[in-house]
Amino acid sequence: MLVHGGVIFGYDIGISGGVTSMDPFLKRFFPEVYRKMKDDTKISNYCKFDSQLLTSFTSSLYVAGFIASFFASAVTRAFGRKQSILFGGAAFLAGAALGGAAFNVYMLIFGRVLLGVGVGFANQSVPLYLSEMAPPRYRGAISNGFQFSIGIGALSANLINYGTEKIQGGWGWRISLAMAAVPAFILTLGAFFLPETPNSLIQRGKDHKKAKRMLQRVRGTNDVQAELDDLIQASIISRTVEHPFKNIMRRKYRPQLVMAIAIPFFQQVTGINVIAFYAPLLFRTIGLGESASLLSSIVTGVVGSGSTFVSMLIVDKYGRRALFIFGGIQMFLSQIMVGSIMAAELGDHGGTGKGYAFIILTLICIYVAGFGWSWGPLGWLVPSEIFPLEIRSAGQSIVVAVSFIFTFIVAQTFLSMLCHFKSGIFFFFGGWVVVMTAFIYYLLPETKNLPIEKMDIVWREHWFWKKIVGEEEEINKMEAA
């Protein structure tokens, strides 16, 4: 059931790029863009869709999600993961209804804002819920299911856009926007029947016996006393923390704070959301028609979902670091090749040949596959499993907030960057992929198969982080003495 939290997020990402490539939608809400695309023969291929109002439609969701994620932290900590999921589902339903019924651009954008509130709550609470309920040896596969469901949501959006674009009368975009209500309804209804996590029950001072029964149920064994003791100890520590956002700034949590900021930042500057938001527009830029562009987006969606499924199968065997590094190399090589072909073959006017358009589509699929088994799922998995309980909700909020703010920046600036950088946009994102791959290689320890409550071990044994965490421990020992 919780996969629907990811499905909604993926659907909202995928649907915007599709409807913004539909002529009736552009003509109704963004007539200036439509005029440039159809009638302006002087404007560059790379600049036809450069509109701040058009990008505001896409990116408004992420501003709202950024703000909502901080409120979600307080709700998740005080009332539990389940209540946060319920609130997110309700906001999704309202946003989908408003978007489908929109008759002006303001209703359209306000609907996206409500969807953003839902995304902010769901992305804060669902990964936490999954990581807390999953057994350590399967945590990677189960948590990666969240990213897999995002891919399924984006693929569903692409399929629906491809179908609704063909509806006579030009109102198919309404179905595309309103269909977000289907997974939102399932998420909201299903959340009523979800049990609360043992971690949350203990953290909020509930009956330890109930938490133990829940732990026995999700682990499939009665022998859970050792894990329960770890949870109780972590809860005792967490209750001494009155200000988790202030506490996470302490030196002992420096590795987690750095990862909470760096990983979601790097996830966004891979350039993946350029493909997710604007793939149909990008494919139209290289000369494909409206239907062909939407069909190409379906192909990339299938590849992304398939590669994320592969990641679910192998992440607990090969570990997080190997997938990060292999995926980074794959993304870098494909981005450089796409940029090179577009630089050589696509001018400011006309299109590429069909052969080159097919090669670009193939290379983008290779790039999407690299993201699908590395930065896509692991960008959510690793942050969700590294925080101790006392800073967990605050840490996850920082992850979600950083993700949203840089998603917003990329979404809001990409069409303008495409206009100015042209094919160089792929070299820009490729450069960031080099930086983030090196970051993982040197600074991220392996976290597979280790219980969350014992995760502090990996930092104390890491060649770099042990200097920082170790100094904090030495200071605490001296103060205690």
Question: How would you characterize this protein structure?
Answer:
Helix content is 79%, strand content 0%. The protein has 23 helices and no strands. The chain has helices at 3-19, 23-29, 31-39, 52-79, 81-101, 105-133, 139-164, 172-178, 181-191, 198-203, 208-219, 225-239, 244-247, 254-268, 272-285, 290-318, 320-345, 354-372, 375-386, 389-421, 424-443, 456-460, 465-480. The relative contact order is 0.15. The model has no long low-confidence stretch (mean pLDDT 84).
Which characteristics define this entry?
481 residues, mainly alpha, 23 helices, 79% helix
Q: β content, as a range?
A: under 5%
Major β-sheet, in short? none
The beta-strand count equals 0
Spans with pLDDT under 50 lasting ≥5 residues? none
| Helical segment count | 23
**Secondary-structure element sequence?**
HHHHHHHHHHHHHHHHHHHHHHH
User: What is the straight-line distance between the termini?
Assistant: 51 Å
Q: Which structural class best describes the helix and strand composition?
A: mainly alpha
Query: What integer value in Å does the Rg equal?
Result: 23 Å
Which percent bin holds the helix content?
over 70%
Summarize the structure.
This protein is mainly alpha-helical and 481 residues long. Helices cover 79% and strands 0% of the residues.
What's the layout of helices and strands?
Elements: H1 3-19, H2 23-29, H3 31-39, H4 52-79, H5 81-101, H6 105-133, H7 139-164, H8 172-178, H9 181-191, H10 198-203, H11 208-219, H12 225-239, H13 244-247, H14 254-268, H15 272-285, H16 290-318, H17 320-345, H18 354-372, H19 375-386, H20 389-421, H21 424-443, H22 456-460, H23 465-480
